[in-house]
Amino acid sequence: xxxxxxxxxxxxxxxxxxxxxxxxxxxxxxxxxxxxxxxxxxxxxxxxxxxxxxxxxxxxxxxxxxxxxxxxxxxxxxxxxxxxxxxxxxxxxxxxxxxxxxxxxxxxxxxxxxxxxxxxxxxxxxxxxxxxxxxxxxxx
Length: 140
Ligand code: ADP
Ligand code: MG
Prior knowledge:
The protein is an alpha+beta fold. 39% of the residues lie in helices and 20% in strands. It contains seven helices and four strands; from the N terminus they run βααβααβααβα. The longest helix has 11 residues, at 122-132. Adenosine-5'-diphosphate (ADP) binds next to loops.
């Protein structure tokens, strides 16, 4: 499998509980390299646009409110098959269904406050990375 990049967000429920380092350790232990990282306060406009694909879902308004409720850490992760690998490390969207050892199983508070975002395809990864990072911010 090829070396890929994926986009990751450590969500407000995790930054609030000071879990950035523990979550980053999971990525690094699984062989993903953090090649860009920035702690930001997302604006409502940014969160709305980022989650636009979910605009019709009943949880969209709450999700935007949650993602702007505190700092997040936006990241680019690099490694062999990084998109799928990161989805494995994250675990299922609903922590109740997440496998043991995954970030969401260990840290998520709820299906909404589930500690991390990860791109679902290489195509979306490229779009999401470009939304938050310039090429020169990423050092592989
Ligand atoms: P994932 O983050 O696993 O790719 P989705 O793309 O389906 O999941 O959803 C985006 C985010 O929206 C989830 O990570 C979670 O924060 C929130 N979310 C998803 N489904 C629900 C739900 N049924 N109720 C509340 N929030 C949800
Ligand atoms: Mg998704």
